[in-house]
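Field log, afternoon session.

UNIT: design team B
ACTIVITY: writing a sequence onto a fixed backbone
BACKBONE:
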């Protein structure tokens, strides 16, 4: 039975639009991530999952430990729900009320670690908490690659802390403050973990990406090792986190790194299709109904404008997946209320049939739907709420 027939059969009782997760693909992707990590624990990036039931599912598998949350209110909720007893907030917070809640809750304070990269973060934390209870903090390090004397920068604009001296200096400042306690260090190499090195139809660009990534890996491994050594002379670190779905095995190979992060590889969203070092099975999909047949070789589906965050280009569009052979109209793209699709496959579709799509980014799909229908084999075995379905909006 083809995937399309299996999904259509399993969801025949549902009216689109709706979203599904194929549990066999989800579990296969999780197993692939753990193989790539070579024994180092994987911290699950919750922003790429955004479903408490599926976070529970993956954290129950061997090789996964801890959550990387995207906001402090989310982390507090996950701690309250006992999803994990080790939650790292991946981005600094300026939420004073959430910080006060954190310091005022013994369980949360022992469970949640917040991100810092400057003295101003420390000032804000201490002022918000009033010294009620020490807050666990993690030091974020700039992992970008620089060349030409710093005139060229490749990687996310994150932390201002780049050198061992800067990191050790901030670690010493943390050590002088009773309201915070340094427990971890993080460096996210987005230029490796989040950039596919084999985009279709771009051989010259692909070679350039692989060259930059190779040089960046060497530079970062050396610099990260020196930073960890310098910070460990100041503080006892519980963990050193790095990487992402696209770099799991590369980051795990560094001796200084104690754990890696991953999340998008569980759903295998479109942006993670073009890597030479791994491949995954699309696990998260959404279905839209055919509502028009404007012309031969054209169908129109309801809605579909589920664009991903980031630079506004075609890579942020969802992808028509099943049946294969459909494409967007270049003048309309994915629309708010309707989306025309072109291609020979359109002539085999009737009014009311489903077209299955993949989102460009993993967890952002869950911002569109209240629930995920979990498919095991040829049937829906459960319907579970997304963060949105639980009334939780964290951004």
């Amino acid at each position: 039975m083809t995937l399309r027939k299996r999904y259509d059969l399993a969801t025949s009782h549902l009216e689109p639009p709706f979203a599904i997760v194929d549990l066999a693909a989800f579990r296969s992707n999780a197993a692939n991530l753990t193989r790539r990590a070579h024994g180092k624990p994987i911290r699950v990036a919750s922003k790429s999952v955004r479903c408490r039931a599926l976070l529970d599912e993956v954290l129950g598998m061997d090789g996964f430990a801890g959550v990387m949350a995207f906001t402090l209110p989310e982390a507090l909720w996950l701690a309250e729900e006992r999803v994990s007893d080790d939650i790292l907030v991946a981005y600094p917070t300026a939420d004073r009320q959430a910080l006060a809640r954190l310091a005022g809750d013994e369980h949360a304070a022992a469970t949640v670690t917040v991100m810092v990269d400057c003295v101003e973060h420390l000032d804000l934390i201490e002022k918000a908490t009033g010294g009620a209870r020490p807050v666990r903090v993690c030091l974020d390090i700039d992992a970008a690659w620089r060349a030409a004397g710093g005139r060229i920068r490749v990687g996310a604009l994150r932390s201002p802390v780049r050198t061992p001296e800067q990191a050790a200096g901030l670690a010493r400042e943390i050590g002088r403050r009773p309201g915070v306690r340094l427990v971890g260090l993080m460096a996210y190499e987005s230029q490796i973990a989040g950039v596919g090195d084999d985009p279709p139809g771009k051989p010259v660009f692909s070679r350039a990406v692989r060259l930059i990534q190779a040089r960046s890996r060497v530079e970062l491994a050396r610099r990260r090792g020196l930073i960890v050594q310098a910070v460990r002379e100041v503080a006892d670190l519980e963990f050193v986190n790095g990487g992402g779905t696209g770099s799991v095995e590369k980051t795990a190979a560094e001796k200084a790194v104690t754990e890696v992060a991953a999340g998008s590889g569980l759903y295998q969203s479109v942006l993670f299709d073009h890597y030479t070092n791994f491949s995954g099975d699309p696990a998260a999909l959404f279905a839209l109904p055919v509502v028009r047949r404007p012309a031969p070789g054209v169908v129109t589906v309801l809605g579909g404008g589920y664009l991903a965050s980031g630079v506004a280009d075609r890579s942020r569009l969802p992808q028509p997946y099943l049946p294969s052979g459909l494409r967007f109209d270049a003048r309309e793209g994915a629309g708010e209320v309707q989306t025309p699709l072109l291609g020979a496959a359109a002539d085999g579709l009737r009014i009311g049939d489903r077209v299955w799509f993949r989102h460009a980014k993993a967890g952002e799909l869950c911002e569109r739907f209240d629930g995920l229908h979990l498919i095991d084999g040829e049937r829906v075995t459960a319907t579970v709420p997304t963060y949105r379905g639980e009334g939780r909006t964290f951004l």
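LOG NOTE: The longest helix spans residues 203-232.
NEXT ACTIVITY: expression trials, pending approval
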